[in-house]
């Protein structure tokens, strides 16, 4: 682990600490037993020059991503979302025989929705195996400038490069941009999806702050970064996923489009971090007070990374929330890091009167699976 002292988008050093979640375990490091886990500082800093928001401490990527618990395919809604993204952009940018590359391809869910020449790149060996078994050619490794050079030699340039909820996980964004600049065909498009930090603040989505998420983007810092590499934003679309995201299309050239300029102007208003911190604290108190009234008669639904953050930040142990269920096989039989709730298969939900949805961004899909549940279903998002 090391402390980053400069902004990874504008390279400035005018950073201010704006939120401190204290010592937190790695959000996706589900435990095989109720062992004591490593904890790391989790602080958020804002760049006063370009508006970038990023973690102070950087935990080594191989610690977090080479054996990964999260499966993109765990949500049919997200699988459909990425299929739509892939098909729309393949139709728009990829000629017959053209190549599509996905950075952070996880279990191959997104690439499995198209039949063009395709290549996944992901550092998690367990996920790459799943992808290859479903017929998606996948390189196990981190996307870097040197890997981009290799792929360009072996596969040719890509007409479409996709990176959804990936850029925020990467420390050296300049290296990624140099790799994209090499790999991307002159007429190609680099399509990325990232949560927007202003929605994190306005919707008090503090549980999306964890060590995997090194960066919390806005258009202004990304525009600064891409300009440095001869890349320009040519389209911006808002998306509901993951609490409010932007889908950016980036292509070779200079000068971002008018949408980007409008977004940048809208982001110049100073952020009210003090009000955000107060909302986090009141949200925590409301949730704990609600759980106390349930006296342990409640099961958590979903063991997302954000559950680890929320339960640890709120100090919610097994006395208040005895257990959690999750449909992901490699999470079942494990424990939530830090608070040690056991994780079971959703099939075991039986004698409880309350379900607390921890994966709030999947509330609709989860509720659709609970139509026969006769107790009370509550989402953590109801506590602000
Ligand atoms: O950025 C990231 C996002 C994209 O995905 C990664 N760093 C890690 C991960 O974050 P997350 O774990 O918060 O993602 P989700 O999609 O909110 O996780 C949902 C969890 O809920 C999964 O473990 C699967 C589970 N689930 C379930 O048990 N039943 C989900 C659905 C839809 C269900 O019906």
Helix-strand sequence: EEEEEHHEEHEHEHEHEHEEHHEHEEEHE
Outline the low-pLDDT stretches: none
SS-based class:
alpha/beta
Count of alpha and pi helical runs: 11
Molecular shape: globular
Radius of gyration: 21 Å
Distance between the termini: 32 Å
Please indicate the percent range of residues in DSSP E strands (runs of 2 or more).
15-25%
Could you estimate the helical fraction of the residues in percent?
Answer: 25-40%
Total number of strands: 18
| Order of strands across the main sheet | 8-7-6-9-10-13-12
Major sheet size, sense and barrel closure: 7 strands, mixed
Average pLDDT works out at 97
* Small-molecule components bound: ligand DWN
Protein architecture, described:
This protein has 384 residues and is of the alpha/beta class. It has helices spanning 61-65, 76-93, 125-133, 145-155, 173-183, 197-202, 219-227, 258-266, 273-294, 305-314, 363-368, and strands at 2-3, 15-25, 39-47, 53-55, 57-58, 99-103, 117-122, 138-140, 158-164, 184-195, 215-216, 231-239, 245-252, 299-301, 323-325, 343-344, 354-357, 376-379. The strands form 4 sheets. A 7-stranded mixed sheet has the order 8-7-6-9-10-13-12, with helices on both faces. Strands 16-15-14-17-18 form a 5-stranded parallel sheet. A 4-stranded antiparallel sheet has the order 2-3-4-11. A hairpin with a 5-residue loop joins strand 12 (231-239) and strand 13 (245-252). The longest helix has 22 residues, at 273-294. It is globular, with a radius of gyration of 21 Å. The model has no long low-confidence stretch (mean pLDDT 97). Ligand DWN binds at residues 70, 74-75, 165, 212, 242, 302-306, 326-328, 331, 359, 361-362, 365-366, 369.
């Amino acid at each position: 682990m090391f402390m980053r002292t400069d902004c990874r988008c504008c390279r400035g050093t005018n950073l201010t600490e704006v939120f401190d979640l204290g010592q937190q375990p790695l959000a996706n490091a589900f435990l095989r037993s109720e062992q004591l886990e490593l904890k790391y500082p989790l602080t958020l800093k804002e760049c006063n020059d370009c508006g970038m928001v990023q973690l102070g401490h950087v935990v080594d990527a191989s610690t977090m991503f080479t054996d990964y618990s999260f499966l993109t395919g765990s949500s049919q809604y997200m699988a459909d979302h990425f299929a739509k993204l892939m098909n729309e952009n393949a139709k728009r940018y990829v000629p017959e025989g053209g190549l599509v590359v996905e950075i952070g391809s996880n279990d191959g869910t997104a690439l499995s929705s198209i039949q063009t020449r395709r290549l996944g790149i992901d550092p998690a060996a367990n996920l790459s195996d799943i992808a290859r078994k479903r017929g998606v050619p996948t390189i196990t490794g981190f996307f870097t400038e040197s890997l981009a050079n290799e792929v360009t030699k072996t596969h040719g340039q890509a007409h479409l490069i996709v990176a959804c909820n990936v850029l925020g996980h990467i420390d050296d964004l300049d290296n990624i941009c140099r790799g994209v600049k090499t790999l991307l065909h002159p007429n190609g498009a680099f399509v990325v999806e990232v949560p927007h930090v202003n929605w994190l603040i306005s919707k008090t989505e503090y549980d999306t702050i964890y060590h995997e998420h090194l960066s919390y983007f806005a258009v202004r810092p990304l525009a600064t970064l891409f300009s440095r590499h001869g890349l320009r934003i040519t389209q911006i679309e808002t998306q509901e996923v993951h609490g409010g995201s932007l889908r950016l299309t980036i292509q070779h050239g200079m000068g971002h489009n008018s949408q980007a300029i409008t977004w940048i102007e809208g982001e110049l208003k100073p952020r009210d971090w003090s009000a955000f911190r107060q909302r986090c604290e009141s949200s925590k108190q409301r949730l704990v007070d609600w759980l106390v009234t349930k006296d342990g008669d409640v099961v958590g639904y979903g063991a997302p990374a954000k559950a680890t953050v929320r339960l640890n930040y709120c100090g919610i142990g097994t006395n208040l929330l005895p257990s959690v269920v999750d449909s992901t096989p490699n999470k079942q039989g494990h424990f939530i890091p830090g608070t040690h709730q056991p994780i079971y298969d959703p099939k075991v939900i039986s004698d409880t009167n309350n379900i607390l949805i921890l994966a709030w961004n999947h509330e609709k899909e989860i509720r659709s699976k609970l139509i026969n549940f006769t107790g009370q279903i509550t989402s953590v998002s109801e506590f602000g």
